[in-house]
Amino acid sequence: MVKDLFSVENKVVCISGSSRGLGKAIAQGFAERGAKVIISSWDREELENTRQEFNSCGLAVESVVLDVQNRADCQRFVSTALEQHGTLDVTICNAGTDIIKPAEQYAENEWDKILDINLRGYYFCAQFAAQHMLSVGCGSIIMTSSIAGSAGIPGLAPYAASKGGINQLVRTMAVEWAQRGVRVNAVAPGYIENIMADVRFDAEDPYQQRVVTFTPMGRRGTVDEFLGAYLFLASDASSYVTGEILYVDGGYHAA
């Protein structure tokens, strides 16, 4: 049945960067559909508030404090799922940050922080998840990329580099693990109504008009509009899909 094809019921799903914004919407969507969800964030207080919010709505999610810049934390994140559920079906690498400024103005520590969170942390979470998935011969790893990974967007040099790196990481891991049952894909959002450090979101009208102009659908996406892509890549509906970057961008990538 089509319903079963897209089901994530009883799948164990770990999501990094899931106490707010897009990650929170993904976590809620999976939990509402019967997945066993483990959320995470470096912000302990925000993470606990999100867990309690979900629990109050009848969504029994679990939480793990996770700083993806710390390799040991990434390993513990995966280990927690295995200890509590005995398996791990889906890992979604979603933690992210950006700093918006001209390329010539980034300090070394700013570059390092963005690459550590957006690329290095993704690699380690995927690496530890894959070690289990490869041992059982199945699993899905989904990374949050961006249109910035393939398009030049001013003010995002290290962010764009990290997302381009994610795209190549996805393709390489997908090819390596394709015959061992582990699929690796990415969702690449376009402009999104989110609460990351996009200082230009409430900026002057000309910038907002530029977003509209370059997006054929003429608006930013809402966090809920991205959920379907993650559900698809986590479910059996995508069993023959690996190494793909799925753009959810209102037509930006096609323009």
TrEMBL record:
Key words of the record: Oxidoreductase, Plasmid
InterPro entries: NAD(P)-bd_dom_sf (IPR036291), Sc_DH/Rdtase_CS (IPR020904), SDR_fam (IPR002347)
One Pfam entry name: adh_short_C2
Entry's Gene Ontology molecular function annotations: oxidoreductase activity, acting on the CH-OH group of donors, NAD or NADP as acceptor; quinone binding
Gene3D superfamilies (UniProt xref): NAD(P)-binding Rossmann-like Domain (3.40.50.720)
SUPFAM superfamilies: NAD(P)-binding Rossmann-fold domains (SSF51735)
GO terms (BP aspect): fatty acid biosynthetic process
Keyword Oxidoreductase: yes
Family, similarity comment: Belongs to the short-chain dehydrogenases/reductases (SDR) family.
PANTHER family listed in its UniProt record: 3-OXOACYL-[ACYL-CARRIER-PROTEIN] REDUCTASE, SHORT-CHAIN DEHYDROGENASES/REDUCTASES FAMILY MEMBER
Protein name as it appears in the record: Short-chain alcohol dehydrogenase like protein
UniProt source species: Chamaesiphon minutus (strain ATCC 27169 / PCC 6605)
